[in-house]
Design brief:
Elements lengths: L1 H40 L2 H5 L22 E4 L2 E3 L4 H6 L3 H8 L9 H6 L2 H13 L21 E3 L7 H5 L1
Parallel strand pairs: 1-3
Antiparallel strand pairs: 1-2
């Protein structure tokens, strides 16, 4: 009799656990979808997906966030949009949150990441982690005056009025 009650209890516990795990799966999928939405609407692909702006966003999702070897050069040096698939694969979620709250070199819009909630940043992390690893790391940062071996956009101010140049 005791064994029958134990089995009945185990069976009930299993049945009650199924909806919870199904709900967990649903919640996880919703978070990944939220991350996809944030990536698609926050401009991440503009720099982190090769050819995204030039093709008016018509780049397959399989190519999203694989980094860019086109540099962005200005008084800060030359920066590159990271391959987020590779970069986030090497971070825990907590490390990503700390990194997202940190400082960035231009043209990365750090204030946009700083304005996001932790839930938004977690959703982005989980979306990126849901993608298969693909591509190569972006070239390393080059300090001002350093030798740049890739094509780059030049953001160095030119022909500034003397008054603006003095600031």
């Amino acid at each position: 009799m005791r064994t029958a009650y134990s089995l009945l209890g185990l069976g009930l516990a299993t049945l009650l656990a199924v909806p919870a795990s199904a709900g967990d799966t649903s919640a996880k999928k919703a978070m990944v979808e939220r991350g996809r939405y944030l990536i698609a609407t926050s401009g991440c692909n503009d720099c982190h997906t090769p050819g995204y702006m030039q093709k008016d966003g018509k780049v397959p999702e399989s190519e999203w966030l694989t980094g860019e070897s086109m540099g962005w050069q200005g008084p800060w040096g030359t920066t590159y949009a990271a391959n987020l698939r590779l970069a986030l694969s090497q971070m825990t979620e907590q490390q990503w949150l700390a990194r997202a709250r940190g400082a960035y070199r231009p043209p990365m819009p750090g204030p946009s990441l700083h304005a996001m909630t932790d839930a938004d940043l977690r959703a982005i992390y989980r979306y990126v982690k849901s993608l298969p690893l693909k591509g190569n790391p972006a070239p390393a940062y080059v300090p001002p005056g350093g030798q740049v071996a890739t094509p780059y956009f030049d953001f160095t101010p030119k022909n500034l009025p003397k008054q603006a140049a003095a600031k």
